[in-house]
Prior knowledge:
alpha+beta; six-stranded antiparallel beta sheet; two-stranded antiparallel sheet
Amino acid sequence: xxxxxxxxxxxxxxxxxxxxxxxxxxxxxxxxxxxxxxxxxxxxxxxxxxxxxxxxxxxxxxxxxxxxxxxxxxxxxxxxxxxxxxxxxxxxxxxxxxxxxxxxxxxxxxxxxxxxxxxxxxxxxxxxxxxxxxxxxxxxxxxxxxxxxxxxxxxxxxxxxxxxxxxxxxxxxxxxxxxxxxxxxxxxxxxxxxxxxxxxxxxxxxxxxxxxxxxxxxxxxxxxxxxxxxxxxxxxxxxxxxxxxxxxxxxxxxxxxxxxxxxxxxxxxxxxxxxxxxxxxxxxxxxxxxxxxxxxxxxxxxxxxxxxxxxxxxxxxxxxxxxxxxxxxxxxxxxxxxxxxxxxxxxxxxxxxxxxxxxxxxxxxxxxxxxxxxxxxxxxxxxxxxxxxxxxxxxxxxxxxxxxxxxxxxxxxxxxxxxxx
Length: 421
């Protein structure tokens, strides 16, 4: 009699019986297992304990099926392995090589063939059905590797990044609204409230820009609304951030999921603004006092920081080639962004640095999706991201209320020309 059993049973190595070999080859071709080599370090103490083995190494889950022939003396038969708990699950099925009858010693884990399927396949083999050829086994093993590493990543990378597109649409839509309401807002804002910001437009400040002078930074909601505002004098600002979101946001959405994309964007945008205001408060920032911060670049820098950590701490099972190429891509973008920030006046590098650093910190804890080698989000991780999104939604609502309140007030001054540089 020959048995098929996952890890846990040890028997003296002997030549595999023909039926066991045929069943093993059938497992390889039909159930995406691979024949094992006793020199494979992943087998650990299982190496050499079985006459023949088949395993699944791809993805986060591993499965091993060992084949052995028990000794004639039942008393000398290896003990049936006890049911395992935690990360390791064990099952065992005995197969009679003469009749193909099976007996379940321990129920096999889900995802592996059960006793009925093993019995049917063994009967077909006993009745003369040819076992899979070595060429078929080789092809199946190649397909197994592709299915375990390439197919899930390919599926993730071709999904439509709907949240990314929605954010880009919001950026452009708000910019159009800025252009439409700036004249009306200018007529409702007292000039003396922005005498320290004469060079910037009154509408921009009313819409929710953050100023490092402290006059506006105490309005907590501005740390969110400022991330959705862009210069109203030129489409270049909103266009460049929309393009950056297209290239980085879609990667985060496909590799980490929609919740992580949205939560990371708003959270790092807020932290980037706080970082800048905090540095100014202690005299580190050399920015001109009173300069307002606007734009999505702080949150986008946070997405870049998150991607930089792909496969470092979280997502160790992400294909190495993918993780390495993404990190190299992010490093190149970071260097180019720093060069542009130092070359073009008016670019707030402090917000970028704060957003990037906070995104990298999140990357230590937030994993990519399980389909590409990550894991599902834990409850506290989900709670953090949902809280950030809820905070952003409330902040945007307060910002909208502020605009409506200003528009409903009396006209107090003629429009003041703005200059956003």
